[in-house]
Amino acid sequence: MVDTPKARRREARAASRAEKSGSGPVGSDWQPRVNPGAGSAFGLFAEVLLTGLLITVAGILIVTLPAALAAGMRHLRRFVSAEDSRMALFWSDLRQGVVPGLPYGLGAGVLGAVLLLDIDLARSGALPGGGVVQAIGWIGLVALCVALLIAASAWTPEVGWREAFRSVPSFVKGDLAGTGYVVATVGFLIVITWALTPLLIPGLGCAALAVVAIPGRPRKSED
Vertex 23, ends 18 and 26: CA angle to 5°? Predict the structure, then answer.
């Protein structure tokens, strides 16, 4: 091959691609990426959409939603870490979490239905102090969704649902900024669903990715 500046640049680009993909040698100053599986933006976007669809299908009965969220988050966590992220593992997590999670899913579903009913009645003017009732209803609904997302993120087959939900207060106390991000995630999910209901499907995938990413975000104390 002719040694020209153009050829050297081409070789340098090829070496850089090989280093980033892990298919070739790396330099002495190479450091592994924090989330090597998220190197392809398009690939990550596709996986988020797929995860949103899986969560929707698995959680369509509402009582199965906690297990669906947990399985989806564990799948995305494996994907961005470049670990084994086969669909079989998602279904395995779902099978292990769905039956123990049914009481929690039922409780969340009933509480959510009550809050939505209160909000609807407050908007209709059927309740005195409708504005206050409506505000309390929305706050309660957001708090319920935040607790569900945090608990789903903490769940593993070894930890179980009781301990996962018990970890919610410690998460909130230990990471107020992170809790704020989860609240923003819930707000985003509510807004896009209100704007166009089918957006709930990709929205669930985005919410799962956001909750997975929040604990690993850079913080000032770590700089």
Answer: 60
Contacts of 193 (CB under 8 A, 6+ apart): 199, 200, 203
Q: Enumerate long-range contacts of 38-43, CB under 8 Å, 24 or more apart.
A: 38/79, 38/80
**Residue 199 in tokens:** 């957006």
Integer-rounded Cα Rg, in Å, for the chain is 22
Lowest-confidence pick of 105-119, 126-140, 176-190: 126-140
Interacting residues of 42 by C-beta distance below 8 A, sequence separation 6+: none
Per-domain residue ranges of the chain: 38-211
Q: Do 88 and 71 meet the contact criterion of CB atoms below 8 Å apart?
A: no
The structure tokens listed for 195 are 């704007």
CA torsion sign for 36, 41, 46, 48 is positive
**Which residues make Cβ contacts (< 8 Å) with residue 175, sequence separation at least 6?**
214, 215
Please tell me whether residue 187 adopts helix, strand or coil conformation. Answer: helix
More confident residue, 112 or 1: 112
Q: With the C-alpha atoms ordered 165, 169, 171, 172, is the resulting torsion angle positive or negative?
A: positive
Q: Quick one: pLDDT at residue 126?
A: 73
pTM of the model: 0.82
